[in-house]
Write a structure and sequence with these properties.
It contains 5 helices and 2 strands. Strands 1-2 form a two-stranded antiparallel ribbon. Strand 1 and strand 2 form a beta hairpin. The longest helix has 15 residues.
């Protein structure tokens, strides 16, 4: 009997993770500093934690809810729906592109009105033209 090799048509991704399960998996990998992250569910290899975070949503029960859109859009839609619909106490690990932290916002914000004016586009000074004849 010949063995069946996985192809895109016969490969079935397991999609049974609930929100708490996704959070648990992401928490497990949070402190991982290796060069590659291997998914504990399907053994796919990822080079960054961001890519792995996007991937883990493929194993969630929410994945098929947003069928017909690009994978990145699915991930963003799932994350937005969870944030809007559920009371998640610590959702920072769930979101792929989390807003910058307070320190980064302070570093980016102007320190004074003078600094803020530097960021505005400069207006060109017009020369006064004497139109009298």
């Amino acid at each position: 009997m010949a063995s069946v090799t996985p192809t895109p048509t016969n490969l079935k991704i397991k999609r049974d993770l609930e929100l708490n399960d996704v959070m648990e998996v992401l928490t497990r990998y949070k402190s991982y500093d290796g060069s590659e992250i291997i998914c504990c569910i399907c053994d796919k290899v990822y080079k960054s934690r961001v890519c792995f975070t996007k991937h883990i949503w493929e194993h969630s029960v929410y994945w098929d809810t947003f069928d017909g859109v690009k994978n990145h859009e699915r991930v963003l839609s799932i994350q937005a729906a969870i944030i809007l619909c559920q009371q998640v106490t610590n959702s920072s690990g769930l979101v792929v592109a989390w807003p910058c932290d307070k320190k980064q916002r302070e570093d980016l914000s102007p320190k004074s009105d003078h600094d803020a004016r530097k960021l505005l586009p400069r207006k060109r000074k017009r020369e006064l033209i004497d139109c009298s004849v």
